[in-house]
Design brief:
Blueprint (H helix, E strand, L loop, with lengths): L20 H31 L6 H30 L7 H35 L8 H18 L1 H6 L1 E2 L5 E2 L6 H34 L1 H6 L2 H40 L8 H28 L1 H70 L1
Antiparallel strand pairs: 1-2
Helix pairs in contact: 1-2, 1-9, 2-3, 2-9, 3-4, 3-6, 3-8, 6-8, 8-9, 9-10
C-alpha cells in the first residue's frame, strides 16, 4: 500500500509528453458526452418530475431513477477519462480514498443501470403476462432498488480492497494477477452479465408471446395491446443498446483477467489498448443514449419536448415583437423630438416675422401722422 506521503502524486509538466491529435479527439469526445449527458438527463428529470401533470406509471418512475444514475455516469465517467487522458495515466491528485471511490463509481453506475432495467422488465412482464394482477407496489420497487444498489457495491469489493495509488503512475489495481483479486473480479463480472442476460431472454420471450400470440390478442383489447407493445419495444431497445455499449468492455476485462491468471506474462498490444479506449467511449455513451431513445420512442416525453419547444418559440416570438415594438416607440420618440425642434424653430421664426410686421406697421403709422 502506498505511504501517506505518496497519496498526492504530482508530476511536472516537463515529464508529460505533448498531447497529439488522438488525445485531443478523445478529450473532445468525452467533453461532448459530458455536455449532452448532463443537459439531456436533467431534461429527462425535469420532464418526468416537474412537467408531467399526471401520475407517473411504475415504468416512468423507474425511468426517472435510471436518469439519475445516467446523470451521475455522464458526470463521473467523462470527467475521470479526460483526467486520465490529460495526465497520461501518470498522476493521481485525489488520494487513496478517491482512488477507491471515483473509479468504482463507474462500475457501480453500470451495475445499477442494468439492475433498474431488470426491474423494469420484471414489472412489464408482470403487467403484460398477468393483466388482471396489479403491478409491483412502491415499497416493492424501492426494496428492489435498494437490493440492486447493495449488489452493485458488493460486486466492486475486490477493487475497493486492491486499488492503490502508485507513485509516478496513477490509481489502479497493481497486482491484478493475484488470485485474491482476479477470481472475485472475474466472478462478479460473469455473475452480473450472464445472470442479467438470462433474465432478459426469459422475460422478453414471455412478453413477446403474450403480446403477439393471436389467441391472447383476441382476449385483450387492441388499444391495450398497442400501448403495451410500445412499452415492450422501448424496453427492448434500451436493453439491446445497453448490452452493445457496456458488455464488450466487460468481455475484454474478462479476457484480461483470464490471461492474468495464466502462467504466461502477456503485455497487451497497442491494438488491444486502442480497442479498450474505443470501448471506454462506448461505455460513456451509455449514460446519454437513453435520452435519445426516450425522445424517439416514449410518447409522453416526446410530447413534452414538443410542448416545451413550442413554448420557447412563442416566448422568442413575443420577445422579438417586444423588441420591435420598443424600436418603433423609440423611433416615434425620435420623430417627436424632431417635430419639437421644428415647432421651436417655427415659433422662433413666427415671432421674428410678427416682430417685423409689427415694426413695419408702426413705421407706416408714424409716417401717416
Amino acid at each position: 500500500m502506498a505511504s501517506n506521503s505518496s497519496l498526492l502524486i504530482n508530476i511536472s509538466a516537463s515529464s508529460l509528453e505533448p498531447l497529439d491529435r488522438s488525445d485531443f479527439a478523445l478529450i473532445a469526445a468525452f467533453s461532448i458526452i459530458f455536455i449532452i449527458g448532463v443537459i439531456g438527463n436533467i431534461l429527462v428529470l425535469y420532464v418526468f418530475k416537474f412537467r408531467t401533470k399526471k401520475r407517473l406509471s411504475t415504468m416512468e418512475r423507474l425511468i426517472l431513477k435510471l436518469a439519475i444514475v445516467d446523470l451521475l455516469g455522464s458526470i463521473f465517467n467523462p470527467a475521470l477519462f479526460v483526467y486520465w487522458q490529460i495526465t497520461q495515466n501518470r498522476a493521481w491528485h485525489f488520494g487513496t480514498v478517491g482512488c477507491k471511490i471515483f473509479p468504482t463509481i463507474l462500475n457501480v453506475t453500470d451495475s445499477v443501470s442494468i439492475g433498474i432495467i431488470v426491474i423494469i422488465a420484471l414489472d412489464r412482464c408482470r403487467v403484460i403476462c398477468n393483466p388482471f394482477i396489479r403491478g409491483y407496489s412502491t415499497m416493492q420497487i424501492n426494496g428492489a432498488l435498494l437490493v440492486v444498489l447493495c449488489t452493485a457495491v458488493f460486486l466492486e469489493i475486490p477493487r475497493l480492497i486492491h486499488a492503490e495509488v502508485i507513485p509516478g503512475l496513477t490509481c489502479y489495481v497493481p497486482e491484478s494477477n493475484k488470485p485474491s483479486y482476479a477470481y472475485p473480479a472475474l466472478l462478479s463480472l460473469l455473475l452480473r452479465d450472464v445472470s442479467c442476460s438470462v433474465i432478459f431472454v426469459v422475460i422478453f420471450h414471455r412478453m413477446y408471446h403474450a403480446l403477439y400470440d393471436p389467441d391472447v390478442i383476441r382476449l385483450l383489447g387492441d388499444q391495450s395491446q398497442i400501448k403495451k407493445r410500445k412499452a415492450y419495444v422501448l424496453l427492448v431497445v434500451i436493453t439491446i443498446v445497453f448490452t452493445v455499449l457496456v458488455y464488450p468492455r466487460d468481455i475484454l476485462h474478462i479476457v484480461f483477467l483470464i490471461i492474468s491468471l495464466s502462467p504466461y506474462d502477456m503485455a497487451p498490444s497497442k491494438a488491444i489498448l486502442d480497442l479498450n479506449t474505443v470501448l471506454k467511449i462506448l461505455r460513456a455513451v451509455n449514460s446519454i443514449i437513453n435520452v435519445f431513445i426516450y425522445a424517439r420512442l416514449h410518447g409522453k416525453f416526446r410530447k413534452s419536448l414538443k410542448t416545451m419547444q413550442t413554448s420557447l418559440n412563442r416566448r422568442r416570438q413575443a420577445a422579438i415583437k417586444k423588441i420591435n415594438h420598443n424600436h418603433i416607440i423609440l423611433s416615434g420618440l425620435g420623430t417627436l423630438e424632431t417635430n419639437d425642434v421644428l415647432e421651436d424653430n417655427l415659433c422662433q421664426n413666427g415671432h421674428s416675422v410678427f416682430d417685423s410686421y409689427h415694426s413695419h406697421n408702426k413705421n407706416n403709422t408714424s409716417s401717416a401722422e
